[in-house]
Protein: Thiol:disulfide interchange protein
Amino acid sequence: MSVAVSWRTHLAAITLTLVASFLGTSTQALAAETYTEGKEYKRLAQTVATRVPEGEHEVVALFWYGCPHCYRLDPYLSAWAQKLPADVHFVHLPAVLNPSWELHARAYHAGEALGVQDKAHKLLFDHIHQEGQPMASEQALADFYADLGVDKETFKKTLYSFGVESQLRQQAAQVRAYRVMGVPAVIVDGQYLIDIGSAGGEAKVTQVIDYLLQKD
Structure:
């Protein structure tokens, strides 16, 4: 073997070692990134029971369709939710912190009952925030859901169905237990609260969620 070839081989080995060392350090730095209770997230005053099997995780996103911050956060949550492991359950909760929010919560649950809410969710957000339509009446919502193939009268009846009323009662109790004062808010495992301000922006919210899921 020539001296030139030997030197090139030695140099390549050194380079690979340095690259591996750098990548290892970077990975360790990312893995070591932590968030602080009371800063990026808060612990709830009391733990609230989750609705998932023991040993699994629940992430609840509280929102209102009329909320611009909720609209900006939603794409990050949607992208994150597509990659979840089987033991992490993501749930939307249309909170009613103001009487004027109730109609949108009813529409969400009616859409679920009618099997179209997965399709309607982003479209309804867009309709309000991109097209400037407040969707503040039953008729406006019935027209919107009709475009998704739902009969208008069926939709209006479903808005006040027993199932929707039950969902509203259960979730009102859930929101009271969380003691949430505004939206958007994310609750992790019935123990931790994250909001956009504390997390440091919409893009950071899912990072804090992941940290908390791994924390326990």
